[in-house]
Amino acid sequence: MGARSNVTPDQRARALFEATYGYAPARVESAPGRVNLIGEHIDYNGGWVLPMALPQRTAVALAVRPSGLFHVVSEQVENAGTGADAFVRAACMALAERGPSVPGVDVAISSDVPIGSGLSSSAALLVALLRALRTALDLGYSDLDLARVAHRAEHGFVGVPVGVMDPMACSLAAPERALLLDTQTLRYENVAFPAHLELAVVDSGQRHEHASGGYRTRRTECEAAAAALGVHLLCELDQVADGALRLAAAALTPKLHARVSHVLAENRRVAEAADALRRGDGESLGRLLAASHASLRDDFEVSTPEIDALVEIASAVPGCLGARLTGGGFGGSVVMLTARGEAARVASATVATALLRVPALRPRIVVPVSSGGIC
């Protein structure tokens, strides 16, 4: 996805709908992608996460039809055909579980959220689609309801083993605020992002796939560790006495012990990061990002040599307070913390150096956004 004009995804989705179907859509709605500041692989373990909304959005133009047919068109090649169609059908099936059935739809999709980059392109699509259906069908659902339906659609019907963080962030995160979310109770708080700090996000160009492979394996490993330790979710171990935890953990394999170590330490880092945001303490927050990446690399083993190199390059750029892999891993993006006004320079320097030192990557800047669109 290269630089674009200032035509918004909403406008492009509407134009695509009219060009494809020959009439105007009933609704056009959109939702943002998200970057997870910290709290990786914690949502399906019942802990705390701290995502933020991206400026990039996915838009859906939609009309409900009585035909019983589902027509889907997308300007993204990666979303075209069966991929996007599967998400549309999944959202409609998840809605039907709550009562309203969707007889048929014409849908057009436009997005600025990079696909396969760990920035929740699928959740943004589902939330935008459900927002359009909410209005078109006159449903009295809250944004929290839509997040739950979106999670049910992706996890239960598409079959991707994601946690609840992504749709919650895409549905509920406020601009310039981090969403501090308890993924077990779904209680959340919007924490102001300090005005003197800024984030940069660089898409590595190394694509990931959550429906299969390492992400699914890590989730299975966490479930096995929780069962061995006698809890339903690993973050419940924070309520277990230290002595009992040490005794139980001794029975785990070294691999499962490492997975548990990451989950418990990362969950605590989220609370510390939220406190750092409230204090405006960029140095502490940067150290937490660095510690999170080390844990994802060494204990959870979801990074790659290329992503590690990108994080190392970013961390060495003057003005970068901390950097880490963001998203589920095995590719995706890197998030960096800087002082306000420094993000573009730090991200540009990171990309320029990475292009020379890591030929396997094709990194590009996602945040901050250039005047002509995504850098």
User: Approximately how much helix is present in the residues?
Assistant: 40-55%
Q: If you consult CATH, what is the topology of the largest domain?
A: Ribosomal Protein S5, domain 2
Q: Into which percentage range does the β-strand content fall?
A: 15-25%
What is the general shape?
Answer: globular
Query: What multimeric state do the chains show?
Result: single chain
Element string (H = helix, E = strand)? HEEEHEHHHEEEHHHHHEEHE
Estimated structural class? alpha+beta
Question: Got a strand count?
Answer: 10
Task: Estimate nothing, just give the exact number of structural domains.
Answer: 2
> What characterizes the major β-sheet?
6 strands, mixed
First-residue to last-residue Cα separation: 9 Å
Summarize model confidence as the mean pLDDT.
92
Rg, nearest Å: 20 Å
CATH architecture of the largest domain: 2-Layer Sandwich
Q: Give the count of helical stretches.
A: 11
Poorly predicted regions are 371-375
CATH class of the largest domain: Alpha Beta
